[in-house]
From TrEMBL:
InterPro entries: Carotenoid_Oase (IPR004294). Pfam families: RPE65. The lineage of its organism: Bacteria, Pseudomonadati, Pseudomonadota, Betaproteobacteria, Burkholderiales. Belongs to the carotenoid oxygenase family. It comes from Undibacterium cyanobacteriorum. Keywords: Iron, Metal-binding, Oxidoreductase, Signal. It comes from the Bacteria. This is Carotenoid oxygenase family protein. Residues 1-25 form the signal peptide. Its cofactor is Fe(2+).
Length: 500
């Protein structure tokens, strides 16, 4: 299916009543989020209106194209899904209550399910009909005790499966366990009393053998955790680290854990005076970005170096070459997107974000030197084949903003060949808004990149959400299948695919 074929199908489908469950879609949307004075109706921003706390499901999703017979399993996603209560609206996208979604690919077709994570906060506020605790980016006067970070834990950032158990991840507090089949919330999890209520990143790294690494940061401290392939905690440690008010992601190579600390200072006096954490953050470019490299075999061995000030959320991958480490990530200028653009987007206003672009580091540990190179594509959410996490990789996959994109919105997918610099890409046009896409190895294959690229997006014209499936070796040919929901869903941040 090439691009022309894709749009022919899309147009034919719309004309012939693609969404046979249209009445259901209208029901969901009218019950989910009516326009309010706190949100300016904007068809491009519909997913940011959010739901009102209801769960949704579709047993048989309409599929355009042909679903690969070898693609079977569950694609779990998580993101903020509720932004308003009692006439009050969150000012930041990161504040919304977590909603976990499951796209299930079976011999019978594709189904979809979405359920809010029943955190203590969600349950209490749902019953009260109003916000009761402060949010990360919205100053709210507490109406119930705030004892730990889990008092306002939204469980809204990612989802991971370990040893047949699903976990909804935040990054400021504990994971929430979920039933992977029903998505029912089972409660907060702590693997040891010392880690109870501690920050636990939403970006754990799982190596090819199943070993998982994760971290949390708070006030100049770094919490490191290693888990076995069976989900057992192997080791953990709290250590000193450079101070930054927000560290969202890290990366692992064969021998090292690597962090970049952007120069973000938190004005605690402002927080104590009632300012939200987001607005209390201060950009301090004179402090530079601090690089921390930690030996996985001995956490006491580490290296520190400094880079120019830059903002980053996501890494792609890293690998070792002797005393050199090579890694990639996505960078932006400063806190502008985070502090200025997102509050406008939450009001339904179109915003052209500062570009986020790919960057690459070569770290010489012996000489303590770092070389950074960059590319110019506007993109986010880098992912690699899960079989090469922490190992040398050739390909990085991203959703990106094509030349047709308005407001730098992500509307295409691309694969970068790091050896040749060549790019394979597909442009959906300005009609589609894309989220993260993940790499799913084809059954029976061991070759990097011989995989499906699976992700989700929002069709602005149809006002519905969809899952897209590409052959990762030929993105330019267009999606091999689109699974179209009869309703829209809130945007997610991150997720993972688990083969059946």
């Amino acid at each position: 299916m090439n691009r022309r074929h894709f749009f022919q199908l899309a147009g034919m489908s719309a004309a012939s009543g693609l969404l046979s469950s249209a009445s259901f879609a209208q029901s969901v949307q009218s019950g989910a989020a009516k326009s309010t004075p706190t949100f300016q109706a904007n068809p491009r921003m519909t997913p940011l209106r959010g739901y009102r706390g209801q769960d949704v499901a579709c047993e048989l999703v309409y599929v355009e194209g042909k679903l690969p017979s070898s693609l079977r399993g569950s694609f779990y996603r998580n993101g903020p899904g509720l932004f308003e209560r009692g006439g009050q609206r969150y000012q930041h996208w990161f504040d919304g209550d977590g909603m976990v979604q499951a796209w299930r690919f079976t011999d019978q077709g594709v189904s979809h399910q979405a359920r809010f994570v029943r955190t203590d906060k969600f349950v209490a506020e749902q019953e009260a009909g109003e916000f009761l605790v402060p949010a990360f980016g919205t100053a709210i006067k507490p109406k119930r005790p705030v004892r730990t970070s889990d008092s306002f834990n939204t469980a809204n950032t990612s989802v991971i499966k370990m040893n047949e158990r699903l976990y909804a991840l935040w990054e400021g507090g504990s994971p929430h366990a979920l039933d992977p089949h029903s998505l029912a919330t089972e409660g907060i999890v702590s693997w040891t009393p010392e880690l109870s209520g501690m920050p636990f990143s939403a970006h754990p790294k799982v190596e090819p053998d199943g070993t998982m690494w994760n971290f949390g940061t708070m006030m100049g401290k770094l919490v490191l955790c290693q888990f076995s392939p069976l989900g057992k905690l192997v080791q953990h440690r709290v250590m000193d680290a450079p101070s930054s008010a927000m560290v969202h992601d890290f990366v692992t190579s064969q021998r090292y854990l690597i962090f970049l600390f952007s120069p973000i200072h938190l004005d605690l006096k402002s927080v104590q005076a009632g300012t939200s954490m987001v607005q209390a953050m201060q950009w301090k470019p004179q402090d530079g970005t601090q690089l921390l490299v930690i030996d996985k075999s001995d956490f006491s061995k580490s290296y520190r170096m400094e880079l120019p000030a830059m903002m980053l959320f996501h890494f792609g991958n890293a690998w070792d070459e002797g005393q050199h480490i090579r890694l990639d990530f996505v960078k932006s200028k400063d806190l502008g997107n985070f502090q200025v653009s997102m509050p406008q987007m939450m009001r339904g206003i179109d915003v052209t974000n500062d570009p986020s672009t790919p960057a690459f580091l070569e770290i010489d540990l012996a000489k303590k030197r770092v070389l950074m190179t960059e590319r110019s594509e506007i993109l986010e959410f880098p992912r690699v084949d899960p079989r090469v996490v922490g190992r040398r990789n050739r390909y990085v996959f991203y959703p990106f903003a094509t030349q047709q994109s308005a407001y730098n919105a992500l509307n295409g997918v691309m694969r970068l060949d790091r050896e040749t610099g060549k790019v394979d890409r597909f442009d959906f046009g300005d009609r589609m808004r894309l989220e993260e896409h993940v790499v799913v190895p084809k059954a029976g294959s061991s070759k990097e990149g011989d995989a499906w690229m699976v992700g989700v997006g929002f069709d602005v014209q149809e006002q519905t959400s969809f899952a897209s499936i590409f052959d990762a070796q030929n993105l330019a040919a267009g999606p091999v299948a689109l699974a179209r929901l009869p309703y829209w869903t809130p945007h997610c941040f991150h997720g993972n695919f688990y083969a059946a």
